[in-house]
Amino acid sequence: MIDSHCHLADEVFAADLDAVVARARAAGVERALTILAAGDEKEEAQGARLLSMWPDVRFAVGVHPHAASPFADAPDEAAVLVREQIERTMAARAVGEIGLDYHYDFAPADVQQQVFRAQVSLARELDLPVVIHTREADEDTIRILSTAAGPSSLRGVLHCFTGGPSLAQAGLALGFYISLSGIITFPKSTELRETVRGVPLDRVLIETDSPFLAPVPYRGKRNEPAYVEHVARMLAEMHGISAADVRRQTAANFHALFRP
User: Fold this and answer.
1) What is the dihedral of CA 37, 38, 43, 44, to 10 degrees?
2) Cα 260 versus chain centre, distance
3) Which listed CATH number (3.30.300.180, 3.40.720.10, 3.20.20.140, 3.20.20.70) goes with 2-258?
4) Over its length of 260 residues, how does the chain's per-residue pLDDT go in tens digits?
5) Which of 17, 185, 190, 228 is the most buried (most CB within 10 A)?
């Protein structure tokens, strides 16, 4: 079983990182993809510490849309920053999380788009998958993913998917995977569950997005990779198959995408 998206380099895990890793491994989590914010020295240092504890952990490095504003005058510099950090991060396997978020006003939409395009182009150049964050920006996100130029085809995942059928189909049409978080366990997520029932299991990943979005029965508490099992169980219930089958299939999907 694999947690395809978490933030173990976040400072909220600094005091008990060893215990969090131990619980994940005890729960059967073979590896996790940890997101590193490009240019954040504290996260980079904690990522190195994490790797020493858990050699099977892997990383994605990117400039989140909330952090796009400092690159308003030079969006390509975001890609330079990401490239440099990937080059010195032995276990880096993806560019991310990157994308667009129009829900909050942390960065103007046009700046977000320019920084996003620069990083997508970098991912194509490096032949790395992208980890996509999109919120209230689905049309622009898909347009940029469809048109960004580069020497290789683009592969990736729509992380923490909460969209509707049109976004799911657009992502699948691009060859992307759909990653499901603890949100699918929430009682009010009926529409989301209906949407993701239509996503083939060979295109699904599971994640925690920890420390955020803890699944039922831990909702409201700090999330962690050990809890990804509850996402697998809900997905199994939705499809009428065993949780073991979900664990095996989503792990195989992770390996196919990230080539860890």
Assistant:
1) 150
2) 15
3) 3.20.20.140
4) 999 999 999 999 999 999 999 999 999 999 999 999 999 999 999 999 999 999 999 999 999 999 999 999 999 999 999 999 999 999 999 999 999 999 998 999 999 999 999 999 999 999 999 999 999 999 999 999 998 756 568 999 999 999 999 999 999 999 999 999 999 999 999 999 999 999 999 999 999 999 999 999 999 999 999 999 999 999 999 999 999 999 999 999 999 999 98
5) 228
Boundaries of every domain in the chain: 2-258
- Token pair 């209906």 is found at 194
Q: How many residues comprise the chain?
A: 260
Cβ-count burial 15-49 (b if 16+ within 10 Å, e if not): eebeebbeebbeeebebbbbbbbbbbeebbebbee
**Cα–Cα dist 122/40, whole Å:** 19
